[in-house]
Amino acid sequence: MSLDKDTVRTIARLARIRVEEKSLQPLAGELNNIIGWIEQLGEVKTDGVLPMTGACENSNVLRKDEVTAGNQRDDILKNAPDAEGPCFTVPKVIE
Amino acid sequence: MNDLLQKSLTDVGLLLEKGEVSSVEITRAAIAAMEQHRDLNAFITETPDIALIAAEKSDRRRSEGKTLGALDGIPVAIKDLFCTKDVKTTAASKILYNFVPPYSSTVVENLEQSGTVMVGKTNLDEFAMGSANMTSHFGPVKNPWKNKDGSDLVPGGSSGGSAAAVAAGIVFGATGTDTGGSIRQPASFTGTVGMKPTYGRCSRYGVVAFASSLDQPGPMTRTVNDAALVLNAMAGHDPMDATSARHDVPDFSASINGDVKGLRIGIPDEYTLDGMPGDIQELWNQGIKWFEALGAECQPVSLKHTKYALPAYYIIAPAEASSNLSRYDGVRYGLRVEDAGDSLDDMYEKTRSEGFGDEVKRRILIGAYVLSAGYYDAYYIKAQQVRSLIADDFNRVFEKVDVLLTPSTPSAAFAIGDKMDDPVAMYLNDVFTVPASLAGLPAISVPVGRDSGGLPLGLQLIAGPFDETTLFRAASALETAAGFDVFDHGKDA
Amino acid sequence: MTYLIEGDSGDWEVVIGLEIHAQVISRSKLFSGAATDFGAEPNSQVSLVDAAMPGMLPVINEYCVEQAVKTGLGLNAQINLRSVFARKNYFYADLPQGYQISQFEDPIVGEGVVTLDMPDGTVREIGIERLHMEQDAGKLLHDQDPKRSFVDLNRAGVCLMEIVSKPDIRSPEEAGMYVRKIRSIVRYLGTCDGNMEQGSLRADCNVSVRKPGEDLRTRAEIKNVNSVRFIMQAIEFEAARQVDIYENGGEVIQETRLFDAGKGETRSMRGKEDAHDYRYFPDPDLLPLNLDRDFVEALKKSLPELPDEKLKRFTDDLGLGHYDAGVLVAERDIADYFEAVVAGGKAKRDAKMAVNWVTSNLFGALKSAGLDISESPVSAPQLGALLDLITDKTISGKIAKDVFEEMFATSKDPDTIVDEKGLQQITDTSAIEAIIDDVIAANPAQVQEFKGGNEKIIGWFVGQVMKASAGKANPGAVNQLLKQKLSGG
To answer: What is the pTM of this model?
Structure first.
């Protein structure tokens, strides 16, 4: 499967990364190089093999329903680029 | 003071115990070495003040008979991927250039509770993505080892800064993280010991996430015994990490007794690559001979799907990373790029394209692509299936052998600037380390010799899940047999 | 009784599926230990995990899992012993992680069914497709500043159950009933408080239209409707809008819309036209959730009696009519109150009498006072005692109404009020006769009318006797004796 610059534009949009129009083709080339190399996985017979979703053997790890966090607004806002009062702010969103 | 700094962590610990040296003295030496070696660019943030306060506290504890253990008072470095409370933590990225976490990662807290002294946060590849420490926003790291002609070498990556700090004799140990080889490969390139524990041994809470199902914190040290001591301090179940293993943590260094008689060692066929440099094959053969001389039994084994590990990794890791890095959006911390009249999406796009370096962006895009509609089954699911097969290969082999012996890297350290044109060429550095990562197995790189250019090379040992004790035992025997001098590079200069 | 929309080209059927988001009652959030209380100061119930700080990780709240399983059982649904949390990836200011942890291919609850008791006496079954658990998002405030939106993450990470119906609903009215039924079930179970004004229960409505017998056509989704009334209005408007489009030769586009309550219309959500590719994949920070059968069985045994079972018991065992029983079981509080009224007393009280008093008198008084049944000044035993006084004829039904008013105002026992005001019914025939004699004597003209053939005037006499006795005379006895005296002479 080969990526063209339209696909790169779509993916970049999904990932919220701005890519200059002139960079789309070169980037497509780079990504195609990587994807082409990855495609050798197609050689492996995997019928009926369960995908491995993690490398750990744990069974469920759950926690009790207790309030153990929160009430730490200063910490939460400490690194905010543009906090105002008790809130984070962002450019106006129209819903 | 150089002498002191070049001791192993274990030996310096003994000196502290005997009262022959104080933590403050050692720490001052480490700080001076850190300043002296600034040309290596191994550190993003130096924390001498914090270090001296911790050293004083350690000395005071010792004078009161309340030492916290073998690591109390020992200068270490922390990879700048581990959040450290009130100390800037950047993941070597512009997007976190000013982030000061109000919390520490569990591993860092564990080390603090063992009394270690943090002298600084080490440099790394941005968001742990890289094998040469060339992608850091804060500039590349130089290997303390140099080419014969004096030119600079990469230290490996992503934990290049930690490896350099240990190899240069600045600290006695450093934390790294290993996702596809980011501890073991730089250890091999810098002639140090680097160990990736079983997935889940160390908590990932507070470690900036790259690929969640692969990331694992681990120790980087000068000796195998040092690594065992540091791992004991780092490891343990953490209820704040749902992937954290509930296995008991044994005393890892207690198993190091040099005895490998009867140990069954597997030599995987598939790790012999076409065109592999002769010196690496020789060193590997030498490793087999050393073990056999000690009474271990080496036998060839087959890990059939080895060659597919790298491509599977380069689907899974970017996929997870593309999602893990979505939180870096300029809203709650870090860089925000916003011009007048920008919409929310404008802000997101500008912030992320300016804040992330090229390699990170590439991987995010690959990751988003392989998860996208229409490609998920062909790529992501396929890769996870191949991953299962790779793990099965290992399981079957570990019914017949106790450990596996392989090269750590397909070459010694290369020149700074090499392999930067072709990402895939860079990815191939991890060909020997990635399979154990996919299977979640513990693995260690031990420095054992030099290539024809005089540069360090390591051999890798891999053990079964949660069998770090056997791993350390075998690694220590190999280390002793090889007799590699970690500080050889310093003597040449 | 099918709901159809008339178009020029024929009748159109409406196909509706509802996705209900129900906030789970729990002390802390689904994946973090922050509190879940409504109305707290902005960002005061936000943990480092909720704020998606670097290195933060989710850990599942076991109680939220129980609540989801209980709800699944209440929907007569299959509980999946293995379920997987998956990441739904998209960017928005109320979504700190840049993904929502939800469940995709493997939800915790599978197919189920909910029954609706229709007003015409029929029963409609609405299929449940699935129930899954997911994180709620934070809140954006748009009115604080002209150029910026403010972000409050208190709600981010609260556990939601998303209950997805099959597209079995066929009218706005059915949709309303379905939502009320779901709300009733979760309130019974204590898994969600169902408070739609506060947003703890909200619905996304998927609406399409078609000619009867056709396959499904394109649907539009109306998001986040937070009252039953609005849901019904939105569906009605949207269905008509779509019919209009088709009748005029157009095509309905698949899109997300919002309901504008002010205008009673749905409108397209501008700016969300991008096709969303959520790139779902299993969350690698969480393990698959494995439940064992014993755990589910234990929860099943712990469930309270649910509305349907209770309704059956009220109609079969207590002999109530379907409609009345339905009104009582709609809220667990009401059903419990009613049962307490019936259960007390020396012998079980008359259920039909009880239901009338509860649903007419009590409900009316509560509504006027703006109270709900849990705040009723009249307790169930007190109401029961009032019914006893009527049954044993101590007071008449009419007097009982006055007593009730007094009970409601003062919370006093009925016996106390009756004694204090001397309201005991007069049943002593000689006393009644005496009053009757007085009335007859005082009204000769009306007596003549009766004798002249106007039998209906008895009613007027009864009224006079009741007035003279301050309402305390037993009406039955009055009637009988009057007839005797007026006829007899």
So the answer is: 0.91
